[in-house]
Amino acid sequence: MNSPNILLLITDQQRWDSLGVYGAPEAQTPNLDKLASEGIRFDQCYCNNPICTPSRASLMTGGELPDHGVMQLEDVLDQRQMMFPELLRQAGYKTALFGKQHVSSRVIEHRERHPNDGFDTYQWCHEPAIHTGSAFNGYAKWLKEKNPNFLQELGEKGRRIGHFPNELHATRWTADATIDFLNEQSGGDTPFLCIASVFDPHDPYDDYPKEVAARIDQTKIRKPIPRSDDSTLPKGILLERRMGYMARHPQDEADIHDLRLGYHASISFIDEQFGRILKTLENADLKENTIVIFTSDHGDMLGDHGLMAKGAFFYDPCTRIPLLIRWPKQIKGNQHTNAFVQLNDLAGTIVEAAGISTPLRKQFLPHSKSLLPYLTGQNICPPRNTAICAYRHTGYGNSSKGSQYIPVSATMLREGDFKLCLYHDEANDDLSAEGQLFNMTADPYETNNLWNIQEYQATKRVMIQTILDWIDKREGGLTRFQSDRIPT
Description:
By secondary structure, the chain is of the alpha/beta class. It has 2 domains: 5-385, Alkaline Phosphatase, subunit A; 388-485, Arylsulfatase, C-terminal domain. It has 15 helices and 12 strands. The protein has helices at residues 30-37, 52-61, 65-68, 84-90, 106-109, 138-146, 148-157, 170-185, 235-243, 253-283, 316-319, 345-353, 358-364, 372-375, 457-475; strands spanning 5-12, 40-46, 94-99, 121-124, 192-201, 290-296, 320-326, 335-342, 386-392, 409-415, 418-423, 434-439. The strands form 2 sheets. Strands 4-3-5-1-6-7-2-8 form an 8-stranded mixed beta sheet, sandwiched between helices. Strands 9-10-11-12 form a 4-stranded antiparallel beta sheet, with helices on one face. A hairpin with a 2-residue loop joins strand 10 and strand 11. Helix 6 (138-146) crosses helix 7 (148-157) and helix 8 runs parallel beside helix 10 (253-283). The longest helix is centred in the middle third of the chain and has 31 residues, at 253-283. The radius of gyration is 22 Å and the shape is globular. The N and C termini lie far apart (60 Å). This is Sulfatase-like hydrolase/transferase. Belongs to the sulfatase family.
């Protein structure tokens, strides 16, 4: 067998600095840290959008935000779009999904599959507490066999159920199902793509097995980055802070500490279960020819800058995500790079590693930059000089009238030492460009906004023009701002 197997491990809402290998003092992640030591760690990986659906659509199609048409949380991926597993399936791979997909609205996904998702085995679970009656819900079927009383309780209480038992946790189910699949591949000649996609550490933050909390040294839990003066913030961030779906969440010091404890406990449990999966690769004699990729769809603010979860802001805790890749046949191990990469680059990387022809990759994945040269030890220029993250009225708020999208459009550019965040739509009712500019080398916590500092105006103008060019090329002039209106 020449084509490598692919094992893609995905978490939900996991910020980059939540693993020991990324320097998190409170992290208990020995298995993922070991995975990094055996492969390559990407230190500057950014999502394409800081909300689940558009971000995952970018991952699965290889497209940047405008390319696939999924802009908002409840958008639906067009049926003509091709997901990269379909390309692998057509190339002879056996393909499987266990867990969350979310390239379209969950309301659609629980009723019907995307015709080009490409999975031979499809055991879906959007979130453990909802859509338990879906015909695709593998977790609910598993629970019905193991403990029907708990399944009923879960249906009645939903997210209010609190701590899940270890043996009934959705992350445990994902690991068990993945392990069964891997064991079935042992000794076979057909390459496989297996995606294990868990819902945690997404809120609610108290769904981890209760005993796992003892692993976390609470004295090492970091305090949040202080809240910025509201007068320095763009209207879009202020609107998100007031209207975001977690805006009413308590933000006193004790509450933030508790949710951070739950967050890291969930990650520790994920690490344990993913560790079981990685051990199975070894036991099934699949490790050497399997590319293992670990990542997430976006991050979580956890109270940093006075913000919760995710939304119309581009601070690193929200947009920068972990990315670890191991390929024993190619990567020596203990490597890392500061090159800019984005979540949608994984599609092109996987498809090229599978040996799919260049014309097909260019046809279906024109904006996905392959990371394969990093995995094969070639000395090349970085695939990207910049990273762009776009928010287009993406997430809904906490209105009592139901899901209402927050009217904010904004775009982030990460280039060189700098990050620029441009807010350019309805939130700015006076049509004046607002934003943030940070020197990420000198100010990694993003506390010193250089937007109005005179010596950085030239940098600001060039970066804004780069954003406007990107918008014009991909979205047909969505923004109402022109370069001659950029304040100096």
